[in-house]
Write a structure and sequence with these properties.
heterodimer; A: 299 residues; mainly alpha; 11 helices; B: mainly alpha; 7 helices
């Protein structure tokens, strides 16, 4: 089964930027525009990799390490997340905790690189990012704990794929995961990925000072994060027939990911960004739903 | 078939708890009214799927009365009160929504702890006692932590829903007269509250209970 895990990682590496292309295409379609090519992010990445980087004199090695650690953490996360019904490459009991903290490590380095620029603007974004992450992470962990409890498994690969049939718990956990997915990937109800001008942005403001290959790494890391969290959501949402190991499971899961991307595009088109003060409230609701689901499983 | 009914009851209870949590986080009066009406419909459904008995005329009557009053008449009266008194459409909380939600989770924990300890007859119904207790606590909380007089009326209705659900799971059989009396009491309360709010508004231009204590002549 080893080769399946490697295929899964390769699939993630290849297709992750494509998901973002799908999201922008759906948004363009809603707005009545033609939209960018589906492969635009690949072109952007190639363009950025050929450029040189500019580093401010106030920055240190921390600033240069940020994007690298970000992508490296996402690679590690890819090795932990199961896809298409087959186990992840590095599946072991308790790996769901490692997944949460791998994502946390990437976030920590993005934040610390933003602080390293010495810009007050980047520091503001960093502060917001940390606040929201501190609320989103418990929701994610408790949701995973519910899956562990219902399936009786402690490895992400086993518990995502042996999720119980449709039950109140599963629906609650999926809603919580959906909120965490949108928030962690700085999608619209929580953060607008397209703004570069507003004072309300969160993720974009932290990466303003990165340029060239570094910025390419950050964009690629963000795409991989979308893929990793999306794989958890899709794997949990699909019933057992959708997670048959092998090519059928692969096909249903890729279809699920595309559907998720379309869903994100639709949400971004029909919803406005919520006020910054309301974001913690949404995350607390997600946490509440996850905790409630956990209580239901313990009952 | 038996398992089906259990699953249905569990779903109803989960929805009841979710409606409570939504009430704690809702900011608009009209949202709260919709949520209370939704709870009323859930309770009417709960009367029908009670696993203890068959669907008799008596059950159907009570469920129908519940559905009509809590699902349609109360919301209508409350909405009319909003329109007549032209009150502020926010619930004006003393305690913010986020903190309210966190406190709600704490209350849910207390309700579960209590529900598991109470030696009651309703052991066969999963989650029913904690859900009823939580609804009760939510009603109390809404009455205490919101400033708008109308949300206090809504809190009272939530409280009543909680007591009613509690009665359904714990007591084998409530006399019809008592149940209808209870419904009538709540009806009168909502009705009188609507009129009272209108009068208060006409006298003082607001229905802010926080400022009503400075009215001593």
């Amino acid at each position: 089964m080893e080769h399946r895990g490697i295929i899964n990682i390769a699939l993630g590496l290849l297709l992750a930027p494509f998901l973002l292309g799908v999201i922008t295409r759906v948004k363009a379609w809603f707005a009545g525009r033609q939209g960018q090519p589906l492969l635009q992010l690949y072109f952007d990445l190639f363009k950025l990799f050929r450029k040189g980087a500019v580093f401010s004199r106030t920055t240190s090695w921390v600033f240069r390490a940020g994007p690298l650690v970000g992508v490296a953490s996402m690679l590690a996360a890819l090795a932990l997340v199961p896809f298409g019904g087959s186990a992840a490459l590095a599946a072991f009991p308790g790996d769901w905790l490692l997944l949460a903290y791998t994502l946390g490590l990437a976030r920590f380095f993005t934040v610390i690189a933003a602080l390293d620029t010495g810009s007050a603007f980047a520091g503001m974004g960093a502060s917001r990012e940390v606040l929201f992450a501190a609320l989103a992470e418990p929701a994610f962990l408790v949701g995973l704990a519910v899956l562990a409890r219902t399936s009786g498994e402690f490895s992400l690969s086993a518990m995502v794929h042996s999720a119980a049939p449709l039950s109140p718990e599963l629906v609650l956990v999926l809603i919580a995961f959906g909120v965490v997915f949108l928030c962690e990937n700085s999608r619209i109800p929580f953060d607008d990925p397209n703004t570069h001008l507003e004072l309300t942005m969160i993720h974009e403001v932290m990466v303003l000072d990165h340029s060239g290959p570094d910025f390419a790494l950050i964009l690629y890391g963000a795409a991989l994060k979308l893929w990793v969290l999306g794989a958890v959501v899709v794997g949990t949402a699909l019933p057992s027939w959708g997670n048959v190991p092998g090519w059928p499971g692969m096909a249903t899961n890729v279809a699920g990911m595309l559907l998720l991307a379309v869903g994100v595009g639709v949400i971004e088109s029909i919803m406005a960004r919520v006020r910054l003060l309301r974001v913690p409230q949404f995350l607390i609701i997600a946490l509440g739903l996850a905790v409630f689901a956990f209580i239901l499983t313990v009952q | 078939m038996n398992i089906d009914i259990e699953a249905v009851i569990k779903t109803i209870m989960v929805l009841l708890v979710l409606a409570d949590l939504a009430l704690l986080g809702a900011g608009l009066l009209s949202t709260c009214i919709t949520l209370v009406a939704f709870q009323g419909v859930l309770i009417a459904l709960f009367v029908v799927v009670d696993p203890a008995g068959e669907i008799t005329l008596r059950l159907a009557l009570i469920a129908g009365a519940n559905l009509a009053l809590k699902g349609f008449v109360y919301p209508y009266l409350l909405r009319r009160a909003i329109k007549n008194a032209q009150v502020r459409r926010e619930v004006q909380p003393f305690i913010g929504y986020t903190v309210s939600l966190v406190l709600g989770l704490v209350m849910l924990g207390i309700a579960l702890w209590l529900g598991n300890r109470l030696p009651l007859a309703g052991g066969g119904v999963p989650l029913a006692v904690p859900a009823a207790l939580f609804t009760l606590l939510t009603g109390l909380y809404l009455v205490m932590a919101r400033r708008n007089a109308l949300i206090q009326c809504i809190g009272y209705l939530v409280l009543e829903n909680g007591i009613y659900a509690f009665g359904l799971v714990t007591v084998e059989r409530i006399p019809v007269l008592l149940e209808l009396g209870l419904l009538l009491d709540a009806f009168v309360a909502v009705f009188v509250m609507g009129v009272a709010i209108y009068q208060i508004h006409r006298e003082f231009d607001h229905i802010d209970t926080d400022r009503l204590d400075s009215l001593k002549g």
